[in-house]
Write a structure and sequence with these properties.
The complex is a heterodimer of chains A (417) and B (165).
Chain A: H1 3-12, E1 22-26, E2 29-33, H2 37-47, E3 58-61, H3 71-86, E4 91-93, H4 101-107, E5 116-119, E6 133-136, H5 139-148, E7 150-154, E8 158-164, H6 173-184, E9 193-197, H7 199-203, H8 206-214, E10 223-225, H9 230-237, E11 257-262, E12 269-271, E13 279-281, E14 292-295, H10 297-300, H11 303-313, E15 323-326, H12 331-339, H13 342-349, E16 351-353, E17 374-377, E18 393-396, H14 399-408
Parallel strand pairs in A: 2-3, 2-5, 3-4, 5-6, 8-9, 8-11, 9-10, 14-15, 14-17, 15-16, 17-18
Antiparallel strand pairs in A: 1-7, 12-13
Helix pairs in contact in A: 2-5, 6-8, 11-13, 11-14
Chain B: E1 2-9, H1 16-19, H2 30-34, H3 45-48, E2 54-57, H4 69-76, E3 81-84, H5 89-97, E4 102-104, H6 106-111, E5 117-121, E6 126-129, E7 135-137, H7 143-151, H8 154-159
The chains are: A alpha/beta (417), B alpha/beta (165).
């Protein structure tokens, strides 16, 4: 069995599963945010169960429209807060304790290798970087999980992507995943598990692994997963006292297909509007002037991403007329970034630093684009109207390219500075 | 289970941001969400859609976010069924969970035209064009999914005690 199949079998209480099987599994953590929780709570209440299945295995995170941007969003968070209070939900995060859900859950040691996590957010697949099975569901599913602690799933076939060779300068996990989505297409992994493997992955820091697993859903994937190794275990040991469950795939595991990618010739990638699969190497982008650059989100709001951005922006200035917005993924990252002098470098360069949240990524809050504006963003989606006006454009890249582009005023690479 | 209605046609990769833009996600009320359904790409949709109408789309319908507001907005706008070449995974689950049936059919998605009257037989997995009489077959919906639709969605399915697979 593949690593995904093994984790699913384990949580279904059976010895073996095969792609296509419908199984019922127990979940280790169920997650919702201020957009998806209200509908999930409505479902939970309609079901009529008095108590949540386990008040330690539910995480509710206010991160999309916070600090609340208007009265309706304030009502949504209030509903979630009241529910959390009523059911004594241990992992309720708001205000100064809150950050982007997919950043703070791993950071607080709330998701571990071998676990099964469902979340009412499509980027719940991020935790696959830790060797967990995690996938996005809707609010009704999540409401039912809060009542029962279980969910039915169809076992996905696994597509294995192996990366070998050595990474060229300025090429990071974000480029590997953009390149892969470009190769597979936005439905290339539809209903499948995406397993990332190979020598290159074994050397990637956790932050870049999170980025890759995060974007599995942009290829249609049900989950993205990386076999846990020393780097995973070190990350987890620093954050949790629980013993991680290390699940590895069998040598004779059956894959839907295996894609091999040699990374030596890969350049930093830029996804053009309006699809994350519409990728070009940065040298082929041409002259695209920008109104805004955003560095942050559950894809690239990690400490290492801010470090990368600051390494380019230190001692430089953002181009005149361009708005650079930087949002650390969590309060811990924010604090570290202050201690390391990252925030000062960014401020000196002319960046606006936002409070940890999802805001600009989905055009919800802070950094909304006007008609005809162009933005380069380190986020995961560049759909029509994603960051604001339906006639605005979003390009995607890694934080190094984003930082260099903020200085250049157009999309470009650090070596042009 | 049978439906009949007028067809609204869409292309490939219709994402959840297009179905219900994020600026409306501070709303959880279905009927209010329905008023903004496809606001950016078909501003006339919410106004002109009639109860029972059918959506026909290309590949990967509903890709993107997990927001259940997307199928909810479509259902509340009055749409009875969506036929597409393929659906994104989370959208597929969400739609069935709230009692909105989906059918996958390459040929129906190709052949059916905007504005046509189409009759859909969910049990048989058949779509019939009323004017031409042409019949398209779709991938049959698994039994389990049909039971979900019959129960009116996951909540009633669970309440009815039919949850165990």
């Amino acid at each position: 069995m593949t690593i995904t199949e093994k984790i699913l079998a384990l949580h279904a209480g059976v010895d073996k599963v095969s792609p296509g099987d419908l199984i019922e599994v127990k979940v280790d953590m169920a997650l919702a945010n201020d957009i998806t929780a209200p509908l999930a709570i409505e479902t939970f209440e309609k079901i009529g169960t008095k108590k949540v299945f386990d008040n330690e295995k539910i995480a509710l995170v206010a991160d999309h429209f916070v600090p609340n941007k208007d009265i309706p969003s304030a009502q949504q968070v209030k509903l979630m807060r009241d529910f959390a209070g009523q059911h004594e939900i241990k992992n309720y995060f708001e205000g100064g304790e809150s950050g982007i859900e997919h950043v703070i859950l791993p950071e607080k040691g709330l998701v571990l290798p071998g676990q099964l996590i469902v979340g009412a957010d499509s980027h719940t697949c991020t935790y696959g970087a830790l060797g967990a099975f995690s996938t996005g569901v809707g609010s009704t599913d999540l409401g039912a999980v809060m009542a029962t602690g279980e969910i039915w799933l169809k076992v996905p076939p696994t597509i294995r992507v192996e990366y070998d060779g050595s990474l060229p300068p300025n090429v990071v996990g974000k480029d590997l995943i953009l390149y892969t989505i470009g190769l597979l297409g936005v439905e290339g992994a539809l209903y499948c598990a995406l397993e990332f493997a190979g020598e290159v992955i074994k050397k990637l820091p956790m932050s870049q692994r999170f980025t890759m697993a995060n974007m599995a859903v942009e290829a249609g994937g049900k989950n993205g997963i990386i076999e846990p190794d020393e780097i995973t275990l070190e990350y987890v040991a620093e954050r949790s006292s629980e013993k991680p469950l290390i699940v590895k795939g069998d040598r004779d595991a059956k894959y839907e297909k295996t894609v091999k990618i040699m990374v030596d010739e890969i350049e930093p990638q830029v996804a053009f509007p309006h699809s994350p699969a519409n990728v070009y190497p940065v040298s082929k982008v041409g002259h695209i002037s920008l109104d805004q650059v955003f560095i942050g989100s559950c894809t690239n709001g990690w400490l290492e991403d801010l470090r990368d951005a600051a390494s380019i922006l230190k001692g430089r200035k953002v181009a005149r007329g361009l708005r650079l917005i930087v949002i650390p993924g969590s309060p811990w990252i924010y604090k570290k970034a202050i201690q390391e002098g990252i925030i000062e470098a960014l401020l000196d360069a002319g960046a606006v630093i936002g409070p940890p949240c999802c805001g600009p990524c989905l055009g919800g809050h802070m950094g909304v684009l006007a008609e005809g504006e162009k933005a380069l963003s380190t986020t995961n989606r560049n759909f029509i109207g994603r960051m604001g006006h339906p006639k605005s454009e979003v390009y995607l890249s890694n934080p190094l390219i984003a930082a260099a582009s903020a200085v250049l005023g157009r999309i470009g690479a650090p070596d042009e500075l | 289970m049978k439906f009949q209605g007028k067809v609204w046609k869409f292309g490939d990769d219709i994402d959840t941001d297009l179905i219900i833009p994020a600026r409306y996600l501070n709303i959880s009320d279905g009927s209010e969400l329905a008023r903004h359904c496809f606001a950016d790409i078909r501003p006339d949709f919410a106004k002109d859609v009639s109860s029972g109408d059918i959506l026909v789309a290309g590949r990967n319908f509903g890709c993107g976010s997990s927001r259940e507001h997307a199928p909810l907005a479509i259902r509340e706008a009055g749409v009875s069924v969506i036929i597409a070449k393929s659906f994104a995974r989370i959208f597929y689950r969400n739609a069935f969970n709230i009692g909105l049936p989906l059918l996958e059919s390459e040929e129906a998605a190709e052949g059916i035209l905007e504005g046509e009257q189409v009759a859909v037989d969910l049990t048989r997995g058949e779509c019939k064009s009323i004017v031409s009489g042409k019949i398209y077959t779709a991938r049959p919906i698994p039994d389990f999914m049909r039971q979900l639709i019959k129960a009116g969605g996951l909540v009633d399915y669970i309440r009815g005690g039919e949850r165990k697979l």
